[in-house]
């Protein structure tokens, strides 16, 4: 039973694949349809013209032969009748006339000596009669024409095609030239009609074969044309996936071969350009990493000196000259800022190099956020809405970095109170959502797409700020390596809202659970 169901599913899958390839938007189907329509139009036109020409030729040849024979019989046999023949004479002559080579029925009409109409027919009593002759034809046959130089005879031969019970007939009539009996002829055209029907069937079959042949030719042409196009599409997709060494095999000298050559040249140029850019990018990252490491050594010494100077400033002994006290405080502040910038640059280089690792632990999210706020003395400025007991397995240090950047950014640009809410989400409650909202003016719409860009400044006229321009970028990278995301938006009630979504357990994302990273800076980002 399983094999049967599998076979049925395979059959339907195969048919689905065929129909997907033959959808009307498919170039292959359109080529077949166009070829078929052109072939059908040409075949129908040719068949129609051939049928019409053959029909006229067959009917004209038969008609001329019959009329010629009838006219000859009228002159030879009917012309030999006396002026007022008897019925027997008419009957005998009609029978002789009907025995001609064309085998038609004959009706002779004459006037007897006492002025009565006398009829003679080649058939039985129920044979060809005057009722079967159209009145218009009788009128034309009996009408006397004016004799002149252009018209030598008062009476002429007239004919007409009629259909009786689906059978075509030729009806003709004429009078004897020198006067006398009037004769009518009835000839069945059924053999010719059958021949013409056979011809029509033959032409129809030929049209159908032409249509099938055109479809096969269209399929072959489409395959010839579309196979290189398909290969080009596959190569383009591979190139889009980053396989820059993709090349097409070129054969021929037609337009498709030129297109393949152009694609290969473009792919080669792109590969070279990407390789150059990757080399420059790698050199740039290496420079930043080396510079950051090199700066740490002198910064360590400078930081130690500034700490001593800061202690002297805080001491009551007044050992620092009041004249240089502002300069000392500026040095202390800028040294801290430079130290944060170097740490952030080192963190960014770890993200770029792919060496950033998670150190996971089971934490209570509310306790972790509370510790972050308390460590930075933000308890009075932050309203925390989080129930305890929402546990997650994540890197607590990196969560601290994210929250410090988001809350610090909200306090700097939005102002207090800053509201932080924590809730569970997902169909099975397997996701933690942390929202940080301020009560400031919000983020301008043109700036909103760039808030997570590195070194982005909201105003070009104020390029200098207390932050390094890397805080939100580092926060979103930390969210990403947790398998989550960080988004920014404006609240309908005013203010900006940053939303952090993290899975509650990301153990499977950790490659080296015991890896330990260096410190990651936390700062407020400039909008």
TrEMBL record:
Entry annotated with the keyword Repeat: no
Subcellular location: Cell membrane
Listed CDD domains: HAMP, HATPase, HisKA
Keyword terms: ATP-binding, Cell membrane, Kinase, Membrane, Nucleotide-binding, Phosphoprotein, Transferase, Transmembrane, Transmembrane helix, Two-component regulatory system
Reactions it catalyzes: ATP + protein L-histidine = ADP + protein N-phospho-L-histidine
Gene Ontology MF term list: ATP binding; phosphorelay sensor kinase activity
Residue span, Histidine kinase domain: 290-506
TM segment ranges: 31-53
Annotated ranges, domain HAMP: 223-275
Gene Ontology cellular-component annotations: plasma membrane
Primary subcellular site in the record, as a coarse category: membrane
Xref: PROSITE patterns: HAMP, HIS_KIN
Membrane topology per record: Multi-pass membrane protein
Segments for region (Disordered): 508-527
EC number of the protein: 2.7.13.3
Pfam families: HAMP, HATPase_c, HisKA
PANTHER family: SENSOR HISTIDINE KINASE TRCS, SENSOR HISTIDINE KINASE YKOH
Protein name from the UniProt record: histidine kinase
């Amino acid at each position: 039973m399983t094999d049967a169901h599998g076979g049925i599913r395979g059959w339907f899958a195969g048919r689905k694949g065929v129909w997907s390839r033959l959808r009307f938007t498919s170039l292959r189907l359109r080529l077949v349809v166009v070829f078929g329509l052109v072939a059908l139009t040409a075949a129908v036109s040719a068949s129609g013209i051939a049928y019409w020409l053959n029909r006229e030729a067959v009917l004209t040849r038969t008609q001329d032969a019959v009329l010629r024979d009838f006219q000859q019989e009228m002159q030879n046999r009917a012309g030999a009748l006396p002026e007022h023949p008897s019925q027997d004479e008419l009957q005998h002559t009609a029978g002789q006339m009907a025995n001609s080579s064309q085998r038609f029925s004959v009706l002779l009409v004459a006037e007897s000596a006492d002025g009565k109409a006398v009829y003679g027919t080649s058939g039985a009593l129920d044979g060809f009669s005057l009722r079967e002759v159209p009145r218009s034809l009788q009128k034309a046959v009996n009408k006397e024409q004016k004799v002149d130089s252009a018209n030598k005879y008062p009476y002429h031969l007239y004919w007409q095609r009629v259909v009786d019970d689906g059978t075509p007939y030729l009806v003709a009539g004429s009078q004897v030239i020198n006067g006398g009996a009037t004769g009518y002829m009835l000839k069945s055209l059924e053999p010719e009609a059958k021949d013409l029907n056979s011809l029509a069937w033959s032409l129809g079959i030929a049209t159908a074969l032409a249509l099938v042949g055109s479809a096969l030719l269209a399929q072959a042409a489409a395959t010839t044309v579309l196979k290189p196009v398909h290969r080009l599409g596959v190569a383009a997709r591979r190139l889009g996936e980053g396989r820059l060494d993709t090349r097409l095999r070129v054969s021929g000298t037609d337009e498709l071969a030129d297109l393949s050559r152009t694609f290969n040249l473009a792919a080669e140029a792109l590969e070279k350009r990407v390789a150059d850019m990757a080399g420059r990018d790698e050199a740039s990252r290496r420079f930043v990493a080396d510079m950051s490491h090199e700066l740490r050594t002198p910064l360590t010494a400078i930081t130690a000196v500034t700490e001593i100077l800061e202690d002297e400033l805080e001491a009551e002994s007044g050992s620092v000259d009041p004249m240089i006290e502002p300069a000392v405080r500026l040095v202390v502040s800028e040294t801290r800022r430079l130290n944060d910038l170097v740490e952030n640059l080192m963190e960014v280089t770890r993200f770029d190099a792919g060496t950033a690792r998670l150190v996971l632990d089971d934490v209570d999210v509310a306790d972790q956020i509370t510790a972050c706020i308390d460590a930075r003395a933000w308890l009075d400025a932050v309203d925390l809405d989080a129930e305890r007991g929402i546990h997650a397995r994540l890197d607590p240090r990196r969560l601290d970095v994210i929250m410090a950047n988001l809350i610090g950014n909200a306090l700097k640009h939005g102002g207090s109170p800053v509201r932080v809410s924590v809730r569970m989400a997902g169909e099975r409650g397997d996701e933690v959502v942390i929202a940080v909202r301020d009560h400031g003016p919000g983020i301008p719409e043109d700036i909103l797409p760039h808030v997570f860009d590195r070194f982005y400044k909201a105003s070009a006229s104020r390029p200098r700020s207390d932050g390094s321009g890397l805080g939100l970028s580092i926060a979103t990278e930390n969210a990403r390596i947790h398998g989550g995301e960080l988004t920014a938006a404006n609240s309908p009630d005013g203010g900006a809202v940053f939303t952090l979504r993290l899975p509650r357990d990301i153990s499977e994302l950790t490659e080296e659970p015991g890896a330990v990273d260096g410190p990651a800076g936390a700062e407020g980002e400039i909008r």
